[in-house]
Design goal:
Layout lengths: L5 E11 L3 H11 L3 E12 L8 E3 L1 H14 L5 E4 L5 H12 L5 E4 L4 E2 L2 E2 L5 H12 L3 E2 L3 H8 L10 H14 L3 E9 L2 E8 L4 E8 L8 H14 L4 H20 L15 H9 L2
Parallel strand pairs: 1-2, 1-4, 4-5, 5-8, 8-9
Antiparallel strand pairs: 2-3, 6-7, 9-10, 10-11
Bound molecules: 3-hydroxy-5-(hydroxymethyl)-2-methylisonicotinaldehyde.
């Protein structure tokens, strides 16, 4: 019997749009991992919708973290995603620095499609670099990777060499493993993983159906963490996360929903259980 691992999941709760905690909780649970939500904000819908409410809970986050510390609660992994203010990034830095022997995965949620999210300011970007520097694994999309490195975003023409250069620049900030998602070339989309210690690049290809759904980055990172927590290797995790998302996008696209609604992963959670069971 395996013990159930605990992941402190720092992310927002968005009522509609299948992203952040509403992706991480079901996905980590399906992968047999306890998702312990550490909420950053409560939104009626994510920020891609024309209108949304936004309750920032920065002050509560300090008390929340301190309460876990008093209780002596340990986590196998800290997973940070959408952060709503500079102060929140500082709180996450403290939370990580107060703990040892925890895998730190930072998804530096800042933007997509070459554009920063509404709530993300320039000063938050430099703080985010600091958070990236203390992570073991980071999972930016190409937009975020460009923001972190000051490289120009080129949606359809980023060469292998350029992606690898960006991966190395990010790993020089600190992380041992850098995963860059969403590199589009013709009708394909690629995810790259760079392992600093091995100096190796692993690249996974998937078909691109020219639709960009919200929350796929959160689904991706949640799958990676869930599989790593079950002792699968990173390349296995990336390959299966990529294939899973492709399959769910294909299914979702048949319904012609608003892409802000995210992908219909609920119908495929059973597949994650099978992917996880394969040893
Ligand atoms: O999936 C990224 C994300 C997470 N959280 C919120 C967002 C977005 C992207 O738009 O708005 C609140």
């Amino acid at each position: 019997m395996k013990e159930v691992k605990k992941v402190a999941t720092i992310n927002d709760l968005s009522g509609v749009g299948r992203c952040s905690l509403t992706a991480a909780i079901p996905i980590l649970s399906a992968l047999g991992v306890q998702c312990c939500p550490y909420p950053t904000a409560v939104l009626s819908c994510h920020t891609g919708f024309d209108q949304y409410t936004f309750l920032d809970i920065t002050d509560e986050m300090v008390k929340y973290k301190d309460s876990w510390k008093t209780l002596g609660i340990d986590f196998d992994c800290i997973y940070s995603g959408f952060l709503g203010s500079e102060k929140q990034i500082d709180i996450v830095l403290d939370f990580v620095n107060e703990r040892d022997n925890t895998l730190v995965v930072v998804d530096p949620v800042m933007g997509d499609n070459g554009v920063k999210y509404d709530t993300f300011t320039n000063s938050m970007c430099s703080k985010m670099k600091h958070l990236v520097s203390i992570a073991n694994i980071v999972t930016p999309n190409l937009t975020e990777a460009c923001i972190l490195t000051g490289e120009e975003y080129d949606k359809y023409n980023t060469s292998d060499e350029k992606v690898i250069e960006i991966c190395k620049k990010i790993s020089n900030l600190g992380p041992e493993k850098v995963i860059i998602t969403g590199i589009i070339k013709e009708n394909n989309i690629y995810n790259y993983a760079y392992d600093k210690e091995k100096n190796e690049v692993f690249k996974v290809k998937s078909k691109f159906n020219h639709e960009s759904y919200s929350g796929t980055g959160d689904v991706f990172t949640s799958i990676i963490i869930g599989l790593l927590m079950n002792n699968h290797d990173l390349n296995y995790a990336i390959k299966h996360a990529t294939d899973f998302i492709y399959k769910v996008i294909e299914f979702t696209s048949k319904f012609k929903t608003d892409t802000n609604e995210g992908i219909m992963f609920e119908a495929f959670l059973k597949e994650l259980i099978l992917i996880n069971e394969y040893k």
